[in-house]
C-alpha cells in the first residue's frame, strides 16, 4: 500500500507500523457529503423500487413464503464473490441430504458448507434481531456461525482479529498489498465508532446510511477471514432492523458479484480519495436494480406456486400435497422423513404424497438411490438462477 495513493480528501489517516508498513484507519461516520440532483434522483429511484418490493412482500399469502429461496440465492452469490464454486442446486441438495452428515468425497463439499453457513448466519441474525440490538457482539456471533467448521475456522471464529491483515492479489505481502486495514488500536477505536453510528439518530436517509456502514465495515476489516460476507450480511439485517422491508427479500450480492471490479474499485476509492458520492451512487443503483429483480422473481415464484397448486387440485389431491407445495417455496427440496414430520404422517404416507408431486412434475428425485432420496423442485431452483429478462428491468 503506497501512501502516495491517498489524497488529502481521504476520510481517515495513514498509520506507519513499527515494522515499516503503512495501514489506513478510517475516520468516524458520517462524512461530510455534498448532495446533488443526481444523487437525489438516484436515491428517489432506489427508495421507490424498494417501497414497491415492500408492498408486494406485505401481500404474500404466507409471511415465510419465498424467504428461503431468496436467502439461499444470496448465500450462493455472496460466497461466490469470495471464490466458492457451489451452486444453488448444490446447496439445496446438501441441506436436504443432511448437512450434518454430508456425503464423503464430493469435490464441492467444503464450498457448499461455507454457503450453508452463510444461510445459518443470516437466519440466526434475523431471529436475534427480534430481541437483541445490531451490535459488535452480534457481529461476532454472526462470524462464529459463518466460520464454523470451514476453511478459515482456525482463524478465531467469532473474535475480532488480534494480528494485522491485508488485501491484495494472491501471494502479495503486507508491503505489496493493495490495502492494509487499521492496526489493532485504531481498529478497536473504529469499531466503537461504527457501533455508535449504528445506533445514533441521523438526518441521513437510511439507504445512504447503509452505504456508509458497508464501506466502513469493509475498511476496518476486523476479522482475519469472512469480512466481505459479514459486511454484505449486515446490509440484509439493516434493511429489516429499520423496517424498510417486512420480509428479507432484498439482497445486493448479485449486483456486487455482477459488477465485482467496480465494487472493489469504488470501496478503495473512498479510502484513497474520499470518493463517497461515486460509491453511494453505485450502492443506490444496486438497491434499485435488485429491488426490481426481487419483484420479478417474486411475481414468477407466486405464478409458479399457483401453477403447482393447480396441478394438485386438478389431480384431486388432498390438502397434504398442497402443504408440501407451499413448503417448497420456503426450501425447494424435500426428503421423505422431513415430509413425514411436516405433515404429521407416516413415512409411507409421506412417500405417497411426494409421489403425487413427482407425477405432476413438481419435484424430481435427484440422488438415483433407493434410500435417502432427495426431491428437488427444479422449477424453483431454475427460476432463482435465471437472468432477469430485459422487459422486466
Structure explained in plain terms:
This protein is mainly α. The protein folds into two domains: 3-295, Orthogonal Bundle (Fic-like fold), CATH 1.10.3290.10; 320-392, Winged helix-like DNA-binding domain superfamily/Winged helix DNA-binding domain (Arc Repressor Mutant, subunit A, Orthogonal Bundle). 57% of the residues lie in helices and 4% in strands. A hairpin with a 5-residue loop joins β1 (12-16) and β2 (22-26).
Question: Could you list some keywords that capture this structure?
Answer:
Fic-like fold; three-stranded antiparallel β-sheet; Arc Repressor Mutant, subunit A; 15 helices; 4% strand; 393 residues; 57% helix; globular; mainly alpha; single chain; 5 strands; 2 domains
CATH topology of the largest domain: Fic-like fold
The end-to-end span amounts to 40 Å
CATH class of the largest domain: Mainly Alpha
Report helical residue fraction. 55-70%
Count of runs of 4 or more consecutive helical residues: 15
How many structural domains are formed by the residues? Answer: 2
Summed over residues and divided by their number, the pLDDT gives a mean of 91
Please write the string of helix (H) and strand (E) elements. Answer: EEHHHHHHHHHHHHEHHEEH
CATH superfamily descriptor of the largest domain = Fido-like domain
Q: Could you tell me the number of beta strands? A: 5
Beta-strand percentage range: under 5%
Major β-sheet profile? 3 strands, antiparallel
